[in-house]
Amino acid sequence: MSSSFDRYQKRKLISSYFSVVVSIALVLFLLGCLGMLVLNAKKVADHFKEQVVMTIYLQDSAKDVEVNQLKKSLAMADYTKTTTYVSKEEAAEIMKAETGEDFMDFVGYNPLKNSIDVYLKAAYVTTDSLANITDDLSGKAFIEEIRYDNDLVEIMNNNVKKITFWVLLISAIFTLIAVLLINSSIRLAVYSKRFIIKTMQMVGATKRFIRKPFVWKSVQLGVIGAIVALIGMAVVLYYLNQTFPELELLRQPVMIGLLFVGIFLLGIVITWFSTFIATQRFLNLKTDQLYY
User: What topology is assigned to 53-148 in CATH?
Assistant: First the structure.
């Protein structure tokens, strides 16, 4: 009978520990994923900004030396990420591939212009910067026109500001929720042993002596939960890097390492603090209050 009861108690204890580890791991995993989103939010935003193209259309009378000089000056400019020269013949082939029809059969000639596609660095993809660049380049006589989607740039910049604000706000709220959830799981685990705590206290054990094994066990569970969470984060990071290599998510190993260390330490700190507070609460209760 006693052996059966001991096995029951052991299974109940293991189940309690398992639920605490799962709670800690899940919360830390979600918090870590949110941390990765915060760290890479600017990189993702910059990636989309750098897809905006400024097209410089050249006059047919433009000399090769002028075009080559423009290419070199654009390549050396601070605002340029990459440039691509598109001849009028290449432009015609691109349009033919997109529409499925050869428009020159109807027109009789190629009305398109030689052009240079300029992809700007993210910091320069703003309405003011694009206007300044356009004004500077428009002074060259052999440039016929400069085009870019100004409305798209404005919408993109406004959305980036909104998304950044909400991501930071959600991160703060989620961090608070994470602390409360882990604290709740730890308190439930300690609550199930409240009579043991009071019994030890009644036979003369000091608060520090009683608290120590509870805190140590919770820290161990926090470490296990944090390790599980970090493994999950590593899998997600690897998958995203394989799926979206253009984002170069692994180009910041120091920041990623600090995030992983931060999540690991957070798991330890939260479990230690929660257990300390929970055990202190039951240590301060009177015996008759343990039943409420």
Answer: Alpha-Beta Plaits (3.30.70)
